[in-house]
Amino acid sequence: MKIAHVVAxxxxxxxxxxxxxxxxxxxxxxxxxxxxxxxxxxxxxxxxYPDEIDVIRLPxxxxxxxxxxxxxxxxxxxxxxxxxxxxxxxxxxxxxxxKSRLNHxxxxxxxxxxxxxEGIKGKFINIHHHLVGNHILSKASRLIVTSIDYGxxxxxxxxxxxxxxxxxxxxxxxxxxxxxxxxxxxxxxxKYEIPSDAIVVIFVGGLDTPHYFKGxxxxxxxxxxxxxxxxxxxxxxxxxxRPTYEKTAKQLGIEQRVRFCGRVEDEELPNHxxxxxxxxxxxxxxxxxxxxxxxxxxxxxxxxxxxxxPGVRSVVSDGVD
Length: 321
Description:
Layout: E1 2-6, H1 16-30, E2 34-40, E3 53-58, E4 62-64, E5 67-69, H2 73-76, E6 82-87, H3 92-103, E7 107-111, H4 119-138, E8 142-145, H5 148-153, H6 157-163, E9 167-169, H7 186-191, E10 199-204, H8 216-223, E11 231-236, H9 242-251, E12 258-262, H10 269-274, E13 278-281, H11 292-299, E14 304-306, H12 312-315
Parallel strand pairs: 1-2, 1-6, 2-3, 6-7, 7-8, 8-9, 10-11, 10-13, 11-12, 13-14
Antiparallel strand pairs: 4-5
């Protein structure tokens, strides 16, 4: 059986959707299926993928945020028995549906998140969702959500109700051999010149416009209320909003206690969690559906603070984790 995973963002671009797709594809390949991932060639450059999955990176005609138009997507999906669409993928999801109809290929969908935008873009997304998105979702052989809580609370709640048993809950996970409590994070503290007895708060997430909903500005303003000089904030991630956040930290007078670490390679990420005391996910909209970073922090033995959002609240047990 040959399965094609179709996703808008994938490594080397760091996103929760791409990370879930990666582990889905790799896991299915390890079960003995033939697997390919079809995605965009953004960002440019090379990346070392596991031998068991075939990654096809297609040229982009244009992109809006994390929605690339890939004209060659229709022809790239060939000789497959099943399409696994990682949704939302504006431009891509329509082509997957067309390919499914033309070639009678069943498709399943993992619904990762609502798209929540303001202004004209937001109005367009809402109209598109009701006129096109709902139809594509309703025709899927299976609709996968990372939590029933999110599915029932999100924009697709009518579809979740309509599809009934065709809806499956498949929570995200982490590799507990990589993320575990015994890791020594002292070298990371030394690298960023953080005292060994300091209290360290860590945030991991995209600092680009598509990830505006991560709430980094709120995190910075909240951290400014902590007057303890021995408290530090590690911000892991990069993107076009980073200069704005750095400026905010300076305006708040906390730049000496905030470390913008930039992009951290996967093999180094567990060490950064190990160097922290508390993980924080301060997301502000339902663009956040789960929060894999919460699992990563907890797997490393760290308590977490998270926004009480549908989906996210299913990951964290209040007062326990």
